[in-house]
Amino acid sequence: MATVLLIDDHDIVRFGIDTLMRAAGLHVVASAQSLAAGLAAMAELRPDLVVTDMGIGDSHGLDTVRRVLAAQSPRPVLVVSMQDELLYAEPVLALGAAGYVMKETAHANVVPAARAALAGSKWASAAVVAHLAARAARRRDALPSATQDHLTTRELQILEQLKSGKTTKEIATALHLSVRTVDSHRANIKQKLELRTGAELIAFASSRL
Questions:
Q1: Are 3-124 and 128-208 in the same CATH fold?
Q2: Of 82, 129, 145, 164, which one's alpha carbon is 20 to 30 angstroms from that of 45?
Q3: Can you tell me the distance from the alpha carbon of 197 to that of 30, in angstroms, rounded to the nearest whole number?
């Protein structure tokens, strides 16, 4: 059974997420109301997944996410926050978090997001995916066709795999490549297409092919 650590300074939020996780068969091993307590619990318990807010006591925003990611790496971190997902989901995912869930939709989304994170995938709401896809489409349309045509056959294969929702590890297996090689191809595609983040790359793949 996968183990989960919750970090949030609101008792009612921790209780609610704890209840949802347990009902889904996930084992909440600890619940922390401060970042310091959460970091200590991570070091001691090494949970399979950390679910954290961005604003915990005196720690706020992306700095909180960076600190939790550094302590939890390479295991996944899921951010659950009241902040607007259209503003914060992309930078949180770009830092390396596995997903971003708004608290107002946590009752419906936190368990699917947790399961995706534990499976090695990224999770974002349909609204975030649509927002990124629209922006990627605008970037795509602004690019000279020669730039897009400059992608190699292997890079196009990577895009096709990304469109199907596969993780880097799954792409490596499907194409008989190493994970490092797939990561290198992803970096090359982003550079050629002037995409900044992995989320933009996935959105581009969805809109392009």
A1: yes
A2: 82
A3: 32
CATH class, range 3-124: alpha beta
Q: Is the pLDDT of residue 209 over 50?
A: no
Domain-by-domain residue ranges, the chain? 3-124, 128-208
Average pLDDT over residues 133-144: 67
Element (H, E) at 81: strand 77-81
The class (CATH top level) of 128-208 is alpha beta
pLDDT in tens, 13-47: 999 999 999 999 999 999 999 999 999 999 999 99
Asked if 71 and 42 touch (Cβ cutoff 8 Å), the reply is yes
pLDDT at 11: 94
Q: Is 117 exposed, middle or buried (0-12, 13-18, 19+ CB in 10 A)?
A: buried
Integer-rounded Cα radius of gyration of the chain? 18
Amino acid at site 35: L
CB 62 within 8 A of CB 37: no
Q: What is the mean pLDDT of residues 98-115?
A: 96
